[in-house]
Fold this sequence. Notes:
By secondary structure, this protein is an alpha+beta fold. The protein has helices at residues 41-48, 55-59, 72-90, 92-101, 104-107, and strands spanning 6-12, 15-23, 28-30, 33-34, 61-68.
Amino acid sequence: MSKALGVFVGKRKTAVARLIIRPGTGRILINNQPLEHFGNEIARMKILAPLYFDEKFWKTHDFDIKVEGGGIMAIADAAAFALARAIAEHNEKAREEIRSYNRVLLAGDPRQAEPKKPNRRSARRFKQKSYR
């Protein structure tokens, strides 16, 4: 097993993606499964988007992503954030291209679901009253 070149983290909602980069042939694994077996086509395209900014780096390295929590799209966003940070650290020109394409890929997305309140059905909804 070859030595890891770096570990990068991406977060979205409750999903946390940890990316390990090793020299290789461009293989992408999410929780030890190939990217082709993950989610739907939109989620796969979202994960691959940052890799197109530095295709030479993509084709010469393997990406092993471990993700915990979240749904399919939150996992895809977290993985994309981690990949974008890895590419930005490796290539300064790609960093500027990613920033002009979508700044959120490097900065992250702090939005979270609002917690449910006591004696209510959800975060904002109250029990309905009739007064009759």
